[in-house]
Specification:
This protein folds into 3 domains: about 1-165, Alpha-Beta Plaits (2-Layer Sandwich), CATH 3.30.70.270; about 170-225, 5' to 3' exonuclease, C-terminal subdomain (DNA polymerase, domain 1); about 240-405, Dna Ligase, domain 1 (2-Layer Sandwich), CATH 3.30.1490. Helices cover about 45% and strands about 20% of the residues. It contains 18 helices and 13 strands. The longest helix is centred in the middle third of the chain and has 22 residues, at about 260-280. The termini are far apart.
Length: about 400
């Protein structure tokens, strides 16, 4: 036996946390995301809402058309992250390596601790039981010989499910006549390309290996492998320094033409990027700016910089890039740092080499806050921790947008 992998996936995580904390929501179609009157999408929804056709990623107005009687709530990411940390404490007890895919989902390598399949079953059921007993939440768990098979297994009996796939043959037997979209990495666009070639099922992939590879290249090679149950990937613990970028973006409820206001928003987004970089002990060697215009055309701009992790530098570089783009109504703005590295071996920034420059940066930061306070009558002192929550930032920016247009 090469490896034993468990995949844990929480059931409608955000919605389930809200129902747990407010039992009056139980049994009702709960939709977490934007409000129906706002721009945005569904983050997740309860299983009661899914009966109406609502699903994650759906435009919120389409969700409202399908389920006008639903209960709509903004997500509380601060709360969800806290619950996620509690989940990780439980899961880490049983894994020699844990790979977290999202706040509510993880691959666990239990090969050493389980020893055999019977041991893995016991661990899986302990995880389900502890998750319910300690956090009052349900999860679906898959036990398998590979990551792909484990994820497939966890999805097989949702919600509150348990399933196991112990060999490549079991994997193939389960999926052989299902649609190709059941295979990992086959999304809607890839599926449509396969359909045009007459390849609709996993069996079709197996029987048309060369055609799939010619059509999709390296992705095709991967798909033909997993169609036969072959996946040797290891559970790889996430390390912050492996992240490619840290970024934050925000969609406005109404298109914005005032580019001075956009710079104010850039500063707040830069503070969020700075906060995350500091928590992870990372800095970037590049800064990126993202815009989506009212016509949905998106652009990105980026530039390499000396090591950076401070909001004022991120903001100033992004503002300069903003000055150079076409001035027309903007729907979304975002900023980030990329080409990340940790503290070890890092070269000092100019601010660190020259103490006076560092003090000047801090003075600029204070001046930016003073300017925002005077312009929008907002006092950020003592409230930065709240501002780092996306929901709070969103409400703050919407207040600023309405204030500036008065």
């Amino acid at each position: 036996m090469n490896q034993i992998i468990i995949h844990v996936d929480m059931d409608a995580f955000y919605a389930s946390v809200e129902v747990r904390d407010n039992p009056s929501l139980k049994g009702k179609p709960l939709i977490i995301g934007s409000m129906p009157t706002e721009r945005g999408v569904v983050a997740t929804c309860s299983y009661e809402a899914r009966k109406y056709g609502v699903r994650s990623g759906m435009n919120i107005k389409e969700a409202y058309r399908l389920c006008p009687q639903g209960i709509y709530k903004h997500p509380d990411f601060y709360k969800y992250r806290a619950v996620s940390g509690q989940l990780h404490e439980i899961w880490n007890t049983y894994a020699s390596a844990a790979e977290y895919i999202a706040l509510d989902e993880a691959y666990l390598d239990v090969t050493e601790k389980a020893v055999d399949w019977e041991g893995a079953r016991k661990i899986a059921h302990r995880i389900k039981q502890r998750t319910m007993d300690e956090l009052h939440l349900s999860c679906s768990v898959g036990v398998a010989y590979s990551k792909t098979a484990a994820k497939t297994a966890s999805e097989e009996k949702k919600p509150d499910g348990y399933f196991e796939i112990l060999s490549p043959q079991e994997f193939v037997n389960l999926l052989i006549d299902r649609d190709v979209k059941v295979l990992y990495t086959v999304g809607e666009k890839t599926a449509q390309r396969l359909y045009t070639e007459g390849i609709h099922t996993v069996r079709d992939v197996q029987e048309n290996r060369e055609r799939v590879i010619r059509l999709l290249g390296k992705q095709g090679e991967w798909i033909t492998q997993i169609a036969r149950g072959i996946d040797d990937r290891k559970v790889t613990p996430y390390r912050p320094e492996d992240a490619k970028s840290i970024s934050r973006e925000l969609t406005f409820q109404e298109d914005v033409e005032n580019f001075d206001f956009l710079k104010d928003v850039l500063f707040l987004l830069s503070l969020m990027v700075e906060n995350r970089a500091h928590r992870k002990g990372l800095h970037g060697n590049g800064i990126s700016l993202k815009l989506t215009y009212a016509d949905m055309k998106g652009i990105t701009r980026s530039r390499a910089v000396p090591p950076v992790d401070t909001a004022i530098v991120i903001y100033k570089e992004a503002s300069q890039m903003l000055d150079q783009v076409q001035k027309r109504p903007v729907r979304l703005i975002g900023v980030g740092i990329y080409n990340l590295a940790g503290e070890e071996g890092r070269q000092l920034s100019f601010d660190e080499v020259f103490e006076e420059l560092g003090k000047a940066r801090e003075k600029e930061r204070t001046q930016r806050f003073d300017g925002l306070r005077e312009k929008y009558h907002l006092d950020f002192a003592g409230h930065l921790d709240q501002l780092y929550q996306m929901d709070t930032l969103y409400r703050t920016v919407e207040y600023m947008r309405k204030h500036i247009s008065v």
